[in-house]
Amino acid sequence: MEARVLQQLQHPTWIDSDKFPRKPTGTGSGSGSVRYSRRMKEEQRLQVMISAQFQLNKASNRRNSVSVEVTCSYKNFPASIMESGSFYAPFDEAVMLKNKSQEIEPYLSGRCIYLVGMMGSGKTTVGKVLSAVLGYSFVDSDTLVEQETDGTTVAEIFKLYGEGYFRNKETEVLRKLSLMHRLVVSTGGGVVTQPINWKYMHKGISVWLDVPLEALAERIAAVGTGSRPLLHHESGDTYTKALRRLSTILEERGEAYANANARVSLENIAAKLGHRDALEEIEGYLKEEGSMAIAEF
Ligand SMILES: Nc1ncnc2c1ncn2[C@@H]1O[C@H](COP(=O)(O)OP(=O)(O)OP(=O)(O)O)[C@@H](O)[C@H]1O
Ligand SMILES: O=C(O)C1=C[C@@H](O)[C@@H](O)[C@H](O)C1
């Protein structure tokens, strides 16, 4: 599986923000931009492109915004394994993320970060940014299960072989990941239901993205339930059926998510993406476990 993880990895490299002017020097309105890109080649097979656009526009709300795009391609593999992602953050926020991650990273000692949470809680979105700022690689356990099953999608695996088969494959994927380092893992929403999975995830640091059900249902309604087999059974409009089914699933899972080392509570979800909270919660956990010193005043 290691090779397959490699197919997914993004080898993120954070942009050296010192290459950018920190603030516009003038006081009036104006704008400027800087582009920085870097290409890495590993044995001529793996190509990672990181590009950043840095926009200073004092006259608009987009002032001091930074957009970062990470694109990964692996020679001879189909486009579906090409990963790309981007995020937009105020410049100060981007600098804060970079600083916080640099503070935390040595204390992680290479341990993997496992993001757990309900379907649609943002594990993929947050995970890609966390991996970029920490210099970790990003993997998605659902994708690895699909790859281990000859490319059969999660929805098809459920349909053809049943949930039990999927859960066993998922546990096997987690076991293999637990032997690896420097990964941010976006887990499947149901990993928390199998106690053995915790044995593997506790080799690293687990973070629960706790998002209100209404926000989850809204996001899922926006993209549909096609890829989420556990939401296929209800009738009604997509939002209502997703909300009803998610409520039942969360009830069945009880306290399972609370086994995570850290919890990011995203109550006011519209206002934030969760990357910063996730880093702060990981820092809190590292201090609690004693590997990171608590600042003395
Ligand atoms: N903070 C946020 N605010 C609004 N939308 C978000 C936020 N985070 C993620 N989303 C959107 O919600 C959807 C689900 O996000 P994502 O795929 O990251 O979740 P996930 O936990 O990985 O889901 P799954 O486990 O089902 O794969 C995506 O369309 C994403 O763009
Ligand atoms: O919450 C769940 O149980 C699931 C979430 C998805 O990520 C997939 O792992 C699968 O659809 C099951």
- Number of helical stretches of at least 4 residues: 10
Q: Any guess at the CATH architecture?
A: 3-Layer(aba) Sandwich
If strands are numbered along the chain, what order do they take across the biggest sheet?
Answer: 6-7-5-8-9
Helices and strands: which structural class? alpha/beta
Rg on CA atoms, Å: 20 Å
The small-molecule ligands in this entry are: adenosine-5'-triphosphate, (3R,4S,5R)-3,4,5-trihydroxycyclohex-1-ENE-1-carboxylic acid
Order of helices and strands: HEEEEHEHEHHHEHEHHEH
* Number of spatially distinct domains: 1
Beta-strand portion reads: 15-25%
CATH names the topology as Rossmann fold
Number of E-state strands = 9
CATH superfamily: P-loop containing nucleotide triphosphate hydrolases
Pathway: Metabolic intermediate biosynthesis; chorismate biosynthesis; chorismate from D-erythrose 4-phosphate and phosphoenolpyruvate: step 5/7
EC number: 2.7.1.71
Family: Belongs to the shikimate kinase family.
Keywords: Amino-acid biosynthesis, Aromatic amino acid biosynthesis, ATP-binding, Kinase, Nucleotide-binding, Transferase
